UniProtKB/TrEMBL annotation:
Pfam families hit by this protein: CMD (PF02627)
Source species of the chain: Actinomadura violacea
Name this polypeptide is given: Carboxymuconolactone decarboxylase family protein
Residues of the Carboxymuconolactone decarboxylase-like domain: 42-107
UniProt xrefs under SUPFAM superfamilies: AhpD-like
Superkingdom assignment: Bacteria
Length: 188
């Protein structure tokens, strides 16, 4: 049971409209439990939506790279909920194989290209120290421009924040999304 219960329908008109904006048009699922929980504080939720939507829909990083960073960040933070939502909604569309999705949890270095391995390493270093080693930064800078590097840092930080929020609230995985156990997600 989550520490703060999500809103349940029927929603007030303004909340219903706000929740529709969080979901893609024609979504097959009800608004995510996370979104319904955030709307216990609608002003905070509206401010968070701007950054989250901007990173997903208007970012400079390729979708595949974005999802590797998000999935690895969520896995390292032990956030099965957000990891599962991203794997279910974006993983296949971003071209991630089942082995690569698993590697975002286990830390297996095998399925990654040199560029992708640098992303995973950067996420691991950010998780461990809130910093990136000079050699990892140099590898990243060989593949990304300054604007993309800034976005990568904000993306990892944003999903660390989202993971922390979900974990602290003890939000259970969405029933339609895959999950993992926290023990599995200690790789690196």
């Amino acid at each position: 049971m989550a520490r703060i219960a999500p809103l349940d329908p029927p929603y007030a008109a303004e909340i219903g409209e706000a929740l529709r904006k969080w979901m893609p048009p024609g979504a097959a699922h009800e608004p995510l439990v996370l979104f319904r929980t955030l709307h216990r504080n609608p002003e905070l939720a509206s401010r968070m939506r701007v950054l989250g939507a901007g990173l997903l829909a208007h970012g400079r990083l390729p979708a595949r790279d974005r999802e590797i960073v998000i999935d690895r960040t969520c896995a390292r933070a032990g956030c099965s909920y957000e990891w599962g939502v991203h794997v279910a909604v974006f993983g296949e569309a971003a071209g991630l194989t089942a082995r690569q999705v698993e590697a975002t949890v286990t830390g297996d270095p095998e399925p990654w290209t040199e560029r992708e391995a640098a992303l995973v390493r950067a996420v691991d270093e950010l998780h461990e120290s809130a910093g990136i080693a000079p050699e990892t930064w140099a590898r990243l800078a060989g593949h990304y421009d300054e604007a993309e590097l800034l976005e990568l840092l904000v993306l990892a930080g944003w999903y660390r924040t989202i993971s922390q929020l979900i974990n602290a609230l003890e939000i259970a995985d969405e029933p339609w999304a895959p999950g993992f156990t926290r023990v599995e997600a200690t790789g690196g």
